[in-house]
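call fold(seq) -> tokens
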Amino acid sequence: MARVLIVDDHPLTRDALASLLGAHGFDVCGVACDGEEALVKAERLQPDLVLLDLSMPGLDGLTALPLLRHTAPRCEVVVLTASGTEENLLGAVRGGAAGYLLKTEPPERIAAFLEGVVQGEAALSGAIARRLLDRVRAGSEHGNGVPDAIAGMLSARELEVLLLLDEHLGTDEIAKRLFISEHTVRSHVKSLLRKLGVSSRREALERLSHARAA
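ret:
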């Protein structure tokens, strides 16, 4: 049973999420109303998941996110917000979020996304996934992105890992950059190699290079 810390400044939202997740087998081990309280409770409770709002008084979610990843390094942080701006999306991804969900998502889909995160998957609302994919593809114009032929095959997190492999980073360095474990990095690498039909990181980068040149 995954243990979840809910962070949101609206009591009704916290209560609704706690009820929803409890009904889907999650253990809601705590709630917090802002980033500062979230850090205190995350350090004490060491949850498996933190469901984090961005717009909060005091220490906001975007600022708290990387701090949470350091305070509770084994937990995954999923953003749940009303904001779909590119600035917040990219800030969350760079801060190590395992997911970015919009509050307009149906409750059942939120629960399903979180179940996926527990299994090591990324959680992105449809519109957000498309925006992130477009952002990654846009880098192709400068020779450092991922062309459509490859981007369409990989998840958002796998795309991040592939681009960091292209920067010649090792497993430990990628883990630090994305605030995830080395085991999770290796799992993403294994998955992207399988999807690309190659057997090594070198072959994956060769395929990326050929796709860029095509």
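The mean pLDDT is 87.
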